[in-house]
Amino acid sequence: MNVTTSTLSLTVADVDASLDFFRTHLGYRLAMAADGFASLTRDDAAADIVLLRRGIDILPPEQREQQAAGLILALTVTGIEAEEQRLREAGAPITMPLREEPWGERLFQLTDPNGVVVQLVEWVAAVGRVAQPEEVHGPQP
């Protein structure tokens, strides 16, 4: 298997509200849209996002009334302090302030109007040094 891209599909009550949030605060752009559906993308390594309106009939019946809950979309970034400041100044709904965990993870969270939690993360290997991806996730093939 060769994975060429990753997409997170979120079922939400208000597609337009989440679309506006991801475009305004996180730099996603609209790739395509239809009634009750929006596909978002970025030009970097971030996962693509598909927003589906709760109840939409393209979903199997058992999934139509489910909604995004209990998940965290984590995006690994650089310059996390500047990102938090930029988002605060833009009025983004930061729901967990920037903090650093003992294992070297620096993170904060914001929540979109439909309750989708987005966590921005930067890994620090030692004081003042940002960890490289292979240090966090192991060697990549």
From TrEMBL:
Classification via PROSITE patterns: VOC (PS51819)
Pfam family, one: Glyoxalase
Domain VOC: 4-123
Gene3D superfamilies with a match to the protein in the record: 2,3-Dihydroxybiphenyl 1,2-Dioxygenase, domain 1
Name of the protein this chain belongs to: VOC family protein
